[in-house]
Amino acid sequence: MNTKRVLKLNSKDTKDGPIIYWMNREMRVRDNWSLLYAKSLADEQKAPVVVVYTLVPGFLGGRNRQLAFKISALKQIKQDLAEKNISFFVLVDADGKQSGKHIAEFTKNISAGAVITDLYPLRISRSWSDYVRKNIACSFFGVDAHNIIPVWITSDKREYGAYTIRPKIFRLLPEFLDTFPEMTSSTYAFTEKIKGDDFESLLSKKELEESLQSISWAPPGEEAAHGALKRFLKDGIHRYGAIRNDPNEDGQSNLSPYLHYGMIAPQRVALETTKVAGKDITHILHHIKNKAKIEDDKKPTLIDHAGAFLEELIVRRELSDNFCFYEKKYDSTECFADWAKKSLEKAAKDTREYVYTKKQLEEAKTHDSLWNAAQTQMIQTGKMHGYMRMYWAKKILEWTHSPEEALAIAIYLNDTYELDGRDPNGYAGIAWSIGGVHDRAWFPRPIFGTIRYMSRGGCEGKFDVQKYITTWVQ
Ligand SMILES: Cc1cc2nc3c(=O)[nH]c(=O)nc-3n(C[C@H](O)[C@H](O)[C@H](O)COP(=O)(O)OP(=O)(O)OC[C@H]3O[C@@H](n4cnc5c(N)ncnc54)[C@H](O)[C@@H]3O)c2cc1C
Question: Is the beta carbon of 413 within 6 A of some atom in ligand 1?
Fold first, then answer.
């Protein structure tokens, strides 16, 4: 594998002993650079690989829906790893503060030779890694198994927008969009009798089933993720660019929960998309350039659609990771663009025609049936349509006392109800909507200043608003 994907996180040496893969962001066995690296190091050391997952039941505000999704996937991972002769343990971190400590203790208990983990740009995961870095006696490596191009290689700074990161990504993709080697079975078994936590009893059978029912559009696990990709490439890709922005259509890939939990690698999705499109990545991306919006094209080709999809999957997604990797305050108004901060400050005292509390918003009780429909779609299914997410977040800015309050409420709702929430894409998407991050200044308006505005009238010109409302609230 390309070892540029790997960072050494401490100065300790690799020792004799089992090699731990601390699975965190990437909940999969196939196409996983972290696991592949752990396996190659273990083979070199003639040692077993041991996989450990630290499970935080209410991770960043997630509820039973997200927990059920993870628990089901963990059961499958355990089986898949057993088939590869690899032991798997789950350690439960009840309050989200102990994961680093659990891993450091586990490392000591089994006298591990090295620890490999997934690099995850969110602060909470960094704090866990930091604890492990300071408290283990063997080597510690971080692998970016999420981004196609390791986030620190794409750029060494926070990027201004898609237009600044795109050329960097285009230049590096031929090197990093390589094919995955097969994950082979481990020769060396881990035979020590150690007990992991009983993660399956965190939810009763009834709670698990009910939670999974509410997200029946996204069955959990790696197998289901590959199934969703297959379906999308068969039935959806040929019209993606034309209908992905219509909330009445099932025109998006629905891959975001799988990508968020690492149940499928973005690199695998990109590789399979290029196969279906019949062209290499450079050809497709140069063809589409910045033309993410192709609704108006009379006869968009498969290459146009594939290009529109890859723009979102690669450029926009890796831009979000760049944002959270270099901007530690990704969930605060301090991360807003300077022009946006000044302009929102100037508009701070503008009169708000409607002001809603967090509770009213959460219960979808606003005067705007379109907004209520979007909020209801998210609560009921765990996925608000992508186009509506922009409108939804901008209206929260319009109907609360301040950008600070709007940002906090949007993040709370997004992280609590979206199956794909608690993700760099979410923090970047909300900061784009409310704080102009990765965007430019538009014409000034009350409350919004020069932040891009969206209106219900604008939505009416784009799709059948009444149909969407009827589907979700009537
Ligand atoms: C206010 C707001 C909140 C958002 N919250 C989240 C979130 O919590 N989690 C999340 O994954 N995405 C979030 N997004 C981005 C986007 O709306 C979703 O990724 C997309 O709707 C998920 O559906 P899909 O997988 O069917 O998308 P598709 O259109 O099929 O796209 C495929 C993949 O490309 C990536 N992608 C698509 N659009 C974007 C985008 N605008 N920015 C970054 N990556 C993108 C995602 O990984 C997505 O799964 C948010 C956007 C906004 C404006």
Answer: no
Domain region containing 24: 3-145
User: Which tokens in the block code for residue 303?
Assistant: 């290459």
Query: Which residue, chain included where needed, has tokens 């997952």?
Result: 53
438 and 424 in a single domain? The answer is yes
**Largest pairwise CA distance in the chain:** 69
pTM of the model: 0.97
Residue 186 lies in a domain: no
The predicted-structure confidence for 269-292, as pLDDT tens digits, reads as follows 999 999 999 999 988 887 776 555
d(CA 305, CA 164): 22
41-92 confidence digits (pLDDT tens): 999 999 999 999 999 998 888 889 999 999 999 999 999 999 999 999 999 9
Cα(386) to centroid(ligand 1), Å: 6
Q: Which amino acid is at 151?
A: V
Cα of 84 from ligand 1 centre, angstroms: 33
Q: Which helix (H) or strand (E) holds 8?
A: strand 6-8
115 three-state secondary structure: strand
105 C-alpha vs ligand 1 centroid, how far in Å? 36
| Domain CATH code at residue 446 | 1.10.579.10
Ligand 1 near 244 CB (within 6 A): yes
**Is the C-beta atom of 312 inside 6 A of ligand 1?**
yes
